[in-house]
Write a structure and sequence with these properties.
Largest interface: A-B, 60 and 60 residues
Shape of chain A: globular
CATH superfamily of the domain at 1-6 and 24-125 and 144-154 in chain A: P-loop containing nucleotide triphosphate hydrolases
Distance between the termini of chain A: 36 Å
Mean pLDDT of chain A: 96
Oligomer: homodimer
CATH class of the domain at 1-6 and 24-125 and 144-154 in chain A: Alpha Beta
Strand content of chain A: 15-25%
Low-confidence stretches of chain A: none
């Protein structure tokens, strides 16, 4: 069995990026692994957070405010993301998690809450056996280049186009 | 709040289809919903099954054999899938689950274990509020047409191309 860990990237405009990361977390836990989930930009209560609390092997931290960024990020958005990046640095250095998920980190980069060079440095500093999972639309080319596995979640059809609004337990 | 349930389809050749469905199951449970997961073609132990057992709100059934179909399905593969389809029919009729996930059902169709017309009939028979999630590569056009949300998990880069084999807790 290969003990090396790899870098995953789930991007694209379709539904399924965060849920794929959560599904991967559940699979990892089932294999006896410990998982850290750091959510950037998000600070609202997502239904999955309650369910994930049942797993002592999964630690979830949110590094966003309680509302989405509108147009331009505020200093508060930037400060929250920066705090998150610092927290993740510590988590990676401490090396107590087998899988580290950085949810919506591509969105944080899209809004320039921090620099892509900082994320590259962070990811490159990972312990060899650690698996890192990055999500979010608008992945910069530098992350695509460094990732070992990249899936584009491509929207073929979305029900918001027929007027379906985001629903608790399905979208959040 | 919209009480209507919709049909999701996660297809494509990239990693993330089954994990997205599992993540959706976790999110649904966090919102107090009950989830049924029927896995076609798969009969092996996936690490997530152990972790999902911790949720009394999630029922998982497998309708595949303990090895993948090689080239051509055997009568045993067909019988197992048929049994699964019948079981799912009952589950949908009983209407005790809010979310019904039919994992790898597109692969079952690809191998012609049953007919697409049967799956269409099944899906169309769903109670109005039920959410149905279909996964698997090679989704037939008829399922794309009937689904309200379709995401193609598109492989941009995969680590099996650099020699990484399927790993417990990551791929299974």
């Amino acid at each position: 069995m290969d003990e090396k860990g790899y870098i995953h990237l789930y991007t694209g405009n379709g539904k399924g990026k965060t849920t794929a990361a959560i599904g991967l977390a559940i699979r990892a836990v089932g294999a006896g692994k410990r998982v850290y989930i750091g959510q950037f930009v998000k600070g609202m209560h997502y239904a999955e957070l309650g369910a994930l609390k049942r797993f002592p092997e999964i630690e979830v931290r949110q590094f966003g405010l309680d509302c989405f960024i509108k147009n331009k990020p505020t200093q508060k958005d930037i400060d929250a993301a920066r705090k998150g990046l610092d927290a993740v640095k510590l988590i990676i250095d401490e090396n107590i998690f087998d899988v580290v998920i950085l949810d919506e980190i591509c969105i944080a980069l899209y809004y320039k809450l921090f620099e892509v060079s900082e994320v590259l440095e962070l990811v490159k500093s990972k312990p060899s056996a650690m698996e890192i999972v990055l999500t979010g639309r608008y992945a910069p080319q530098e992350l695509i280049d460094i990732a070992h596995l990249v899936t584009e979640m491509k929207e073929i059809k979305h029900y918001y186009k027929i007027g379906v609004e985001a629903r608790k337990g399905v979208e959040y």
